[in-house]
Amino acid sequence: MKSIIPASLLFVVASAFAADPVVHRDLPYAEPKNERQTLDVHAPADGNSHPVVVWIHGGGWQKGSKTDVGVKPQAFVRKGFVFVAINYRFVPNATIKEITGDVAKAIHWVHRNASRYGGDPNTLFVMGHSAGAQLAALVCTDDRYLKAEGLSLRIIKGCVPVDGDTYDVAKQVQMSESVQVRPYFDSHRRKFGHEASQKDLSAVTHVARDKGIPPFLLLYVADFPESRTGLQAQLLATALILHGGVPVKVVAVPGKTHVTLDSDLGRPDDMATQALFAFVDAQLKSAR
Questions:
Q1: What is the DSSP secondary-structure string of 205-255?
Q2: Which CATH number belongs to the domain containing residue 119 in this structure?
Q3: Reduced to 3 states, what is the DSSP secondary structure of residue 53?
């Protein structure tokens, strides 16, 4: 007997497939091509002028991958975004300043090529977790990195650093030294260098008015006892408001760890995800 699939079920199945991202992997954003300077584009199957998310993975500036994205690509594509996940070089093979330069080069590539994948090159959101949060915050406040690529901060419509602890590197190192967390501050001194370098690689240092710094959403773990990210989020938020006149929303997310705050992003019942999409929706609405 021939089975008949109801038309309503066919529609649901077709819609689900239509919502799946079209993925373009390992695209080089720098020459000569190397695996650490490539990115993946997750794009809607059709349409154009979609807003674009550039996602920067974490890993202490020395590990991690653009494939560590969980359900984020599907979640953003279903919301009508192009989602771009980037790789970058690691310490000690590159300095954090050079790594931030990699992020700027990737943004330049996205700006230049977004329309090929249905994206709007002038409606970019920059986001990242942990080390990626520091890189996102720095590239969205220190305009020298994008200027080196011939771009302005004004192409970025929003910045979302997730559970970063190095928006003010010098303050973080000082606090760790004061409570004798030696492995922590030794590691940060190795990665960020002397005090002048720590200051230069801190987002709080570069906040100023009339630079085109985009609105920020700062997400951090609310109740993980070893987290220092709440204080760092407040330090950056204060600088953005007082010195930059930049709109900021700070969300302390309960019931998460540093890992699950990132891995759960994109799940519809997740509080941080709801805050994230409310933020990007507000920025898109204000840009119209």
A1: GG--TTS-PPPEEEEEESS-TT--HHHHHHHHHHHIIIII---EEEEEETT
A2: 3.40.50.1820
A3: strand
Residue 4 structure tokens:
């008949």
**Domain count across the chain:** 1
CA-based angle 225:169:182, to the nearest 5?
60
Burial of residue 97, with CB atoms counted within 10 A of its CB: 0-12 exposed, 13-18 middle, 19 or more buried: middle
**Rounded Cα–Cα distance for residues 258 and 129 (Å):** 9
The answer as to whether 50 is a domain residue is: yes
CB 148 within 8 A of CB 104: yes
- The answer to the question of residue 222 being in a domain is yes
270 in a structural domain: yes
For the stretch 81-109, pLDDT in tens is 999 999 999 999 999 999 999 999 999 99
Q: What is the pLDDT of residues 174-221, one digit of tens each?
A: 887 655 555 555 688 889 999 999 999 999 999 999 999 999 999 999
Question: 117: which DSSP letter?
Answer: G
Residues 87, 38 contacting (CB under 8 angstroms): yes
Range of the domain at 144: 20-166+207-287
Task: Compute φ and ψ for 28, nearest 5 degrees.
Answer: -75, 135
How far apart are alpha carbons 123 and 255 in whole angstroms? 32
How wide is the angle at C-alpha 29 spanned by C-alphas 267 and 122, nearest 5°?
65
pTM of the model: 0.92
Structure tokens at 87: 């790789």
Task: Specify if 176 maps to a domain.
Answer: no
Distance CA(202)–CA(167), nearest Å, equals: 5
